[in-house]
């Protein structure tokens, strides 16, 4: 029996940690299971996750109603292999040796569920692409038929 590969760690960051980063983290948790360590945070976290985001995710069978926005910490960035920024600009600390991806996405803040759906779908596609890139960290039988 081989030693399992270390789990990659991915951090999703946006300003309020109430929409885009919550959806990214939820999709990665849902699709990646326990193969990946997932965190999300905001440079200026809101009081609660956007209700339209909660509803849009529920439509695809993912419950984030218990999620709460978290403040971005230097430690969270330092302990992540991949940092995905979603519109947090210069508020995201940069450290050598980390992989940074900047996903340009519309901000769902103040939007209804109809406006959130296309953002949700774009995030899901990007997360699926990320999972394919992180493939070497997955167990060999992860994609067995």
Commentary on this structure:
It is a single chain. The protein has helices at residues 20-32, 51-59, 74-78, 113-133; strands at 9-14, 37-42, 82-85, 99-102. With 145 residues, the chain is an alpha/beta fold. A 4-stranded parallel sheet has the order 2-1-3-4, with helices on one face. Helix 1 (20-32) packs across helix 4 and helix 2 crosses helix 4. The relative contact order is 0.23. Residues 137-145 have low confidence and may be disordered.
Proportion of helical residues: 25-40%
Question: Strands of the biggest beta sheet: in what spatial order?
Answer: 2-1-3-4
Query: Number of helical runs?
Result: 4
The description of the largest β-sheet is: 4 strands, parallel
Give the tally of β-strands.
4
Secondary-structure content class: alpha/beta
Overall geometry: globular
Distance between the termini: 21 Å
Helix-strand string: EHEHHEEH
Mean pLDDT: 87
Sum this structure up briefly.
This protein has four helices and four strands; from the N terminus they run E-H-E-H-H-E-E-H. It is an alpha/beta fold and 145 residues long. It has a four-stranded parallel beta sheet with strand order 2-1-3-4, with helices on one face.
């Amino acid at each position: 029996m081989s030693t399992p590969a270390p789990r990659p760690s991915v951090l999703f960051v946006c300003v309020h940690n109430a929409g885009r980063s919550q959806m990214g983290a939820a999709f990665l948790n849902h699709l990646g299971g326990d193969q990946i360590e997932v965190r999300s945070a905001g440079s200026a976290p809101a009081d609660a996750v956007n209700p339209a985001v909660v509803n849009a995710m529920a439509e695809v069978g993912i419950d984030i109603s218990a999620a709460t926005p978290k403040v971005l910490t230097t430690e969270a960035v330092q302990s992540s292999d991949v940092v995905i920024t979603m519109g947090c600009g210069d508020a995201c600390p940069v450290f050598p040796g980390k992989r940074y991806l900047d996903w340009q996405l519309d901000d769902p803040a103040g939007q209804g569920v109809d406006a959130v759906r296309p953002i949700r779908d774009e995030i899901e596609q990007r997360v699926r692409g990320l999972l394919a890139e992180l493939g070497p960290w997955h167990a060999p039988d992860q994609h067995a038929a």
